[in-house]
Amino acid sequence: MDKKAAYSLKARILFALYAVLCLLFFSCMQFPYHVVKPRVEGVLSRAARSEVSIGAITGRFPFGLKLEDLRIGNETVAPRLTVRPAFTSLLLGRLGLVVSVGQARGGLDVIIKTSFTHPGDPLALKFTLEEFDIAPLQKLMRGGPEIAGTVTGEGRLATERANFKDSRGEIDITCKNGQLPLNMPALPLGGVAFTELNLKAVMENGRLEIRQMQLSGNDVSGSLFGDVRLGMNIMTSELDISGNLRLSQAYRQMLGNPRAESMRFRLQGTLGRPRLLQQ
Asked: Does any domain span residue 96?
């Protein structure tokens, strides 16, 4: 009896699928990614408005890419970055991508869903952070506030158009050993260092409502709440935040009020030009 004839239909289908997977794996691994590396660097450089370089590009099975040592200027932003399609979104007729950034200790995973015909309209993001060092992201915000800290948490964002003004979503994160920037020339402090910051906020129609923001550290501790009305440019976002902070003796001396153990204030203006009103 012929051996081939003895195979069942199910076995033949499995053999065919195995052959296809082997072909896809071989194609993914053997593709000359070094040929497309300059083009990818050029696209990323235009998007970041800075010189972007990549150490190496390799394939990630199936149909994904892995970028190693992604640099902006001379600083490494992402030691490892992988991009792969989200097949569930593709089956529903939408463009879906899964982006993962790996660091020495932590990482960031982002799921992006949008339209094939009009990318960004609509747009849905879902992200998860695990001990992710946000300091390298400073390179992506030219002229933005100096940020630092290790973040763990999650959030989501959805918008019908490619801007923040009609967006909705929520954020629940914890940042440890970081710095809260203060872009106010009237204050003698460039930023406030903290041990831990807990933030819970919701977004609706471009308005970020800070429902809970607890700050603790050696020099500053307390709570903040209020709204941020997001603008087309993030630095023009309007602030309306109130807070009550307990200050160390050193901070009270710098602020010229050594006797007051706490400070009640209201923060207005924009993210680029905030105004602090003591109450």
From this structure: no
